[in-house]
Transcriptional regulator
Amino acid sequence: MFRALSQRTVRWRLLEGEGLEHLTITPHEGGIRVDSVVIGDRGGIPYGVRYRIDCDARWHVGSFSVETMAGQRLALLSDGKGRWRDEDGDALPEFDGCIDIDLAGTPFTNTIPIRRLGLTPQSETAKLTMLYVPFDGFEPFRDGQNYTCLEADRLYRYQAEDRSFSADLPVDEDGLVIDYPGLFERLKA
């Protein structure tokens, strides 16, 4: 069982290209709030992104926003049960059933389903449909992802639904990714 969260700051470095993420996670209104800045370059294109995610105490996303340093922005709200709407309150039925989000360019969003699901090695693989947001355009889409617990509270396998990508993710006592093979590495505090 993961420990209850207190305020914490972590950093990851990007292993492909150059990049760094600085993330602070804080207990907030009975749940958690994550604020982060990600800078880097991928494919020779530099980027700077900041994001905020609010989850309830059971790790259901209530809202998130992501914004480039140039001002491009996306902000969505959820009822925590897989129904989404934009900031104007307009329903986004194309994302019905997406409980979790996956923001490109950060290992943090793997923590959300890992903490929310409470998987054990005896659990079946969880097959999820994520609301995925790429950082190169902020055009969200549905993405099938699978999570399997290999070692309780220590090691989880992430696999793309189409099996095009898989990674075993070691996590710390808070469920935060320590190493994302080939993509991210956590820096020592």
Remarks:
- The first helix runs from residue 111 to 117.
- The radius of gyration is 16 Å.
- The chain has one domain: 8-186.
- The mean pLDDT is 95.
